[in-house]
Amino acid sequence: MPKKIAVITGATRGLGWGCAEALADKGYLVVLLGRDAAKLEVRMAELKKKDRPAKAITLDLANPASINKASAELLSEYKDGIDVLINNAGIMNDADGGYVREKVAETLQTNTLGPLQLSSALAPLVAMRKGNIVNVSSGLGELHDMGPGYPGYRISKTALNGVTCWLSAEWKGKGIRVNSVCPGWVKTDMGGSGADRSIPQGVSSILWAAFLEEGGPTAGFFRDGKPLAW
């Protein structure tokens, strides 16, 4: 049986790095994707010190050309498929104000269009192993309880949930499960120190969806394995 492979965006810190460590400890080869090549090298070295196999690829989700380049490298390197794609990377750049078109557009590219482009490119690899695509979403994007503020972040996560449903419908016949996960309010650089959940708690919520087997749910929105309202 070939080694299991997990590809993780935003993998140098917070939930992305937490997922990378946890999956590496479970024997996965983890492919770390992130914007900062130096930070990627540091993280890869940390895993290799523990005899955990890892690979690093520079990826900027704000740049479609960067996504194409990273996708091409992954398609070339892992011709036998991958087991998990975790679309974790995201930005929140409009926390202090209302609608600013440029900020909303930037957030949509990174949080929604980037994951859509990357997932579409890598879905054939996930299909080979009948694996999982996990989109890290947020309760701030729930339509049933939409609040004020953070327009770019909220709308981008609502749209990411739409991406989840579309990808699931597009690839369900190939055996891929695609789900959104809200890890909760987590103590990360984005979440801040006042958050009520630890990184391991958030990671556990994400990995529940990453470990789903054939016949498991798809096109869902979950926290800690329990369904959330859209």
Stretches where pLDDT is under 50 for at least 5 consecutive residues are: none
The number of distinct helices, counting runs of at least 4 residues, comes to 6
Structural domain tally: 1
Strand order of the biggest β-sheet: 3-2-1-4-5-6-7-8
> What is the end-to-end distance?
37 Å
Shape: globular
DSSP summary, beta strand count? 8
Structure description:
The chain is of the alpha/beta class. It has a single domain (5-227), classed as NAD(P)-binding Rossmann-like Domain (Rossmann fold). The protein has helices at 14-25, 37-49, 64-77, 101-128, 151-171, 199-210; strands spanning 5-9, 29-34, 54-58, 84-87, 132-136, 177-181, 221-223, 226-227. Strands 3-2-1-4-5-6-7-8 form an eight-stranded mixed β-sheet, with helices on both faces. Strand 5, helix 5 (151-171) and strand 6 (177-181) form a beta-alpha-beta unit. Helix 1 (14-25) crosses helix 6, helix 3 (64-77) packs parallel to helix 4 (101-128) and helix 4 (101-128) runs parallel beside helix 5. The longest helix has 28 residues, at 101-128. It is globular, with a radius of gyration of 16 Å. The termini are far apart.
What is this structure, in a nutshell?
With 230 residues, the chain is α/β, with parallel strands linked by helices. Helices cover 43% and strands 15% of the residues.
